[in-house]
UniProtKB/TrEMBL annotation:
Taxonomy, superkingdom: Bacteria
Keyword Transmembrane helix: yes
Source taxonomy: Bacteria, Pseudomonadati, Bacteroidota, Chitinophagia, Chitinophagales
Residue ranges of the TM segments: 20-41, 61-85, 97-114, 126-145, 152-168, 174-193, 200-219
Protein name: Phosphatidic acid phosphatase type 2/haloperoxidase domain-containing protein
Coiled-coil features, chain-numbered ranges: none
Length: 220
């Protein structure tokens, strides 16, 4: 296994890296993609706007927040309270097993229900299938290497935007450029914190991008 770097960074830089690690956490990505999708492509989400409770698309946002953010967080918190994991930061490979299993279930449920309901566009369903695939691959690989879930998540954003560009001919140059910058911040933050080796960071990008492209080829 590739060794992590032992470079010593200043406390201020490490603090900034910690902040970016939280702000760019992969659990926020499904909500981010949903926000971007309904803002940039509202014509594909008319059905969700019609079933809004109080604000436009609020039912959709609540659904994504509960399934893809609150439930996975609840699994981590419960696992910590029951002492199944040593830290909520999931620093070790063993600590990641239970959260991986929970996240796999929740992401598959999100994909299955969106697909079965038939209200969401194909590219949106493909996104959830893609994050499900990426977490499954990361879970299997966890026995051998601690892939960076930050770069898996941001690789998924890049792959999703690439799928829209190549598969639907959309001009996503600006969001793709912004995503590249944010992905770079996320990767750098994980390296500064010595949370991963460069190889684990690059592996995350590869898994995230390929998972989204494969998912789009299946259901996009």
């Amino acid at each position: 296994m590739e060794e992590r770097t032992n470079v010593s960074f200043s406390p201020g830089l490490r603090a900034a890296a910690q902040v970016f690690s939280y702000l760019l956490h992969p659990l926020f990505i499904p909500l981010l993609i949903t926000l971007i999708a309904v803002t940039a492509l509202p014509e594909y989400f008319v059905s969700f706007k019609q079933i809004s409770l109080r604000f436009p698309y609020d039912a959709l946002f609540i659904r994504v927040i509960v399934t893809c953010l609150l439930f996975p967080l609840l699994v981590v918190v419960l696992a910590r309270l029951l002492k199944f994991v040593d830290s909520i930061q999931l620093s070790g490979q063993r600590d990641r097993i239970i959260p991986y299993v929970g996240t796999i279930i929740f992401y598959f449920w999100a994909f299955y229900t969106f697909k079965r309901q038939g209200l969401s566009p194909g590219f949106y369903n493909a996104f959830f299938l893609g994050i499900f695939i990426s977490v499954v691959v990361s879970f299997v690989a966890n026995s051998f290497v601690k892939i960076s879930m930050h770069t898996v998540g941001w690789g998924g954003v890049l792959g999703f935007l690439m799928a829209l560009m190549w598969g639907m001919g959309m001009n996503v140059s600006l969001p793709l450029a912004v995503a590249f910058v944010l992905a770079g911040f996320a990767a750098t933050a994980r390296l500064v914190l010595n949370a991963h080796s460069p190889g684990e960071v690059y592996a995350g990008f590869i898994v995230g991008i390929l998972s989204q492209l494969i998912a789009y080829a299946i259901v996009g």
